[in-house]
User: Fold these one by one.
Assistant:
Number 1:
Amino acid sequence: MKTRNIIFSAVAGLLALSVVSCSNKLDIPQHGVLDYNTFYKTDEQALEADAALYLEILNGGGLGWD
């Protein structure tokens, strides 16, 4: 009976910890990542993206030429 109470207490404790673990730390903003909802608002931003595509092609990436 003692073992059963210990196991039950351990399982209940683990469940309680898993519910309140780190849910507020999951929504942190990432640095260096473009948000596509706000990018491409100006012509300059569109040209930056266009230049990045051509640079990828010139380096041989993305086309299976590795």
Number 2:
Amino acid sequence: MRSIYNSYYSQIEPYVTGEFGEQSRYTFLNSDNGFSSVLNRFISHTSSRCSVVDAYAP
């Protein structure tokens, strides 16, 4: 899943934080780093949930 998330991140990142990024008046981000930190938290959360499923499923 990590590679999929990173692939999608790479595709949309220029339109969120790059040259064509969100305008300060129309975004929920406090900084450009906010977008990458959310990606890392999302990957961590997904990994955690996969571990729970693996432990539950026989």
Number 3:
Amino acid sequence: MKESGDKQFAYRMSKKGRSGMRALLYMCAQTSVLHDEHLKNIYHRHRSKAKITNRQLA
């Protein structure tokens, strides 16, 4: 979330490019968080600080 004065902007994933590639990258990121202990620790640390959501994972 970005704030500028009295306005707030939410960052969103770009819809440009190939949707299949975006879906593949998202699934790879999800699998990595589930099975790799190092990435799992990073994910949970950022998640606890509310810096990352599932939508932002990819």
Number 4:
Amino acid sequence: MLLRSALFTCILVLCFLLTCTSARQFHLEAAMYTTGSTSDRLPFWTGAHRDGLFNERHPWSGFISLYGTTPLTLGSFDFEAGAQVFLRQGKDTKASFNQFYVSAGYGSLLIYAGFTSNPQLHEKSMFIRLGGDLPVRAYGGLIHYVLFGGTTPGLGRNPGGFPDFWKVFFFGAGGDDSVIYEQEFALGDHVGAWDFGLDFDISGNRLWLYKQFVIETKKNLLFNAAQDGLYGLAYFRENPDHWWSSLLWEFVYTKNQNGPWWAEDPDRPPGKSGQMNYYNHYLYRTGWTYHGRTIGSPLLYPRLEGGIKDQNRIANNRILAHHLGIEGRPHPGLYYKAMFTYSRNYGTYRERDLAEERGEEYFFTGGPEQVSVLFEAEYRLPGRHNLVLLTSLGLDLGSVFPDRGGMLVGLRWVPR
């Protein structure tokens, strides 16, 4: 019955997209995957950044996915609609929309809309780029996401009307109908980043340096906790058909969080207040997670058992991590990428303090180390069937996750 419903949904989505445009403009992909692991969970990078297709808690599963997009141009206006549906077969059999969106553009202005439920989500980004055709270019901008509105048990409905949207848009404080903390600070649960970088043209190749400063509260707009964030260096060859076409190094540091103590605690040293508790929130208690997965950097992750402890869903948001990546095309039709991540993990300030007060042992004391590795390859099969074979191997070694290996094998079809 579930498979029949999933196939029926796929047909409806295809019909909707096909009616929006001609078959020549329509883009369609279909894929089948299977996953497995030596443990009761998939390795970290095997499950992360897969758009929620795979359930890390049920590693032995099979998947069918169908994805379609269609553009439409009316004068100076550009529109696009897209959808993805999938069927997952295993212990957690499920058929669902994974993506469903529309976008509209006019010139350089782009508006994108998805579908969210209670609470509401606001997102925006604004960038300035300087340098034009010069060999050195600079950019800077703001990335901003906010959860607001919705209903909190024991407190009732949170402000979520149109006037509240403008408060959220400009990091404004809440009104009398909001809880006291939001009246003092900002309405809603804010996350984002100041994003700055330099882009160098080196004989047609590209060198990219960048830094993202964390935004969790309104204070971060003034670069409080400036050492926290993402530091990056990437190099891209002009010709992608090389055994290595791009290299990446990133460093993530989120330990500071504007200090280890609560701002209102008179017994703590001055100038050390903060505990921003990245991706957690006292009203939106699941934090920046969806179905147990982090919305944002997967290196800041929820507790593995999926629960909420002391109002924290994200169990580890103080980390130091190095990430290396390489990709290339060593042979026509063959693509690969490899990733290596080393991290030290310190949990959260809040739970560290609570464990100390209760005389309990804290798992993240001392910063347990973790290594996660992924190697993935795609090979376009000979012939006119437009089939691509995908294989992936993942490995976890360390003190946070159990030592484990995992695999993914799939077949993707693109009509043209």
